[in-house]
Amino acid sequence: MHDIIRSLLDTDLYKFTMWQTMLHRHPATQAEYTFVCRNRPALPLAQLLPEVNEQLDRLCALSFTKDELAYLGSLRFIKSDFVDFLRIFRFQREFIAASADGEALRIVAQGPQVHVMAFEVFVLAIVHELYCRRFDAAQALRTGRERLAAKIEALRGFTAEPPCRHPFRFFDFGTRRRHSAAWQREVLQTLQREASPWFSGTSNVMLAKELGLVPIGTMAHEYLQTYQATGVRLRDFQQAALEDWVQEYRGDLGIALTDVVGMDAFLADFDLYFAKLFDGLRHDSGDPVAWGEKALAHYARLRIDAHTKRLVFSDALDFERAFALYRHFGDRTQPSFGIGTYLTNDVGLAPLNIVMKLTRANGQPVAKLSDSPGKTLCDDETFLAYLQQVFDVAR
Q1: Which of 125, 173, 289, 324 has its CA 20 to 30 A from that of 105?
Q2: Are 349 and 147 in contact (CB under 8 A)?
């Protein structure tokens, strides 16, 4: 069986940007990440356990190459001391354990956050590719190519319409739930060749490097959630996280994620200072139109020109949803669309809805109060209720 992960760059950019910030701001944080499958797989994931453990062994044998470190160092927001840290970094096998829980697969990464936080995307890509190998690969490839061609035709038809004030731009967010590494590469090469006016880049750092694409990403939920357990007053954790981000990147990577405790609670903390400093916001749960309208109303209240800001939509998107959102917002702000599974795993087999989320930090539970039913994640009901009370959020 060949290695599914062959490079430590084969992950999302925001893993590096969050990693650097945690190394500089909270290097002693201890963390626990837990694998969850949200839908019912076509076969028990516990069957994958021997292969998962073998792939984890191989992942923990990898290190960054000189060429990879040079690429990371060429990104202006990556600092030299972080590159030096990565030069000696290697995953520790003792920090991650996979086991069977009945028919389910249980994977937990636990240890210093700066040593375990990068497991996430690799674990998800490994599990999903092993799962997809259980099915007809040739048929999946035929279906995937047919559907990709149809997507590009739909894109050409849509972009033939009169454009809105701001251009339509989309990018790949599909590493974590891809059908395979090879298929993600083929998809990106096809889009690069046939959809280049609208295709803006990828979250996958390795493919950005190798294909000459723009690497895209800023922060994920785990970044803000960590601040629920770093010693700041719980009510202040969002502002503390945003402030550390501002100080770390000084104007780079200016898209803030809004749904760790819901959009309303986020906007209550996203005052004029942050609204001016950040380039825009990213949507990842709840009604995207309602979310976008709240964002635009917030900018209007602060007397900020929304045409100077970007709204990034990234929740379960396909092109039809992206087109509708562009028509709705494209004349009022700069919309962009991060599209994941629909690009990298639309091959006729129902994809897994898998995540590996931060569940504890410094021995304390952390939580995400999602704007979408089923996305709230916390293993401690008492803390969840407390978080809801502090931010006056109904569940």
Answers
A1: 173
A2: no
